[in-house]
Amino acid sequence: MNRGKESGKFRRAGIGCAVLSAALLVGCAGAPVQEMSDARQAIKAAAEAGIDSESQAELDQAMELLSHAEIKLQERDYRSARRAAVEAQRLAVVALSASRD
Q: Residues 9, 24: one domain?
């Protein structure tokens, strides 16, 4: 009879380990690697395009947001890092578009 109780304990422990492992994998998979790369590329393109003084404010803000995203990435605050990176990319694209008009 004890054998059944022990088997149940091991099963619950195994399930607990599986759930914990899955949670850790999801946390690791959530890093906004692509968003960070996209933001860096957009900022680089805008900087190399020789934007005008009006667009410089957007580019400066984009660079600040990218720095903020990098800090949040190191802190493993992936949601905040992703939001900042996406906004940085958007601002860099706005600056680049304005310089081409």
A: yes
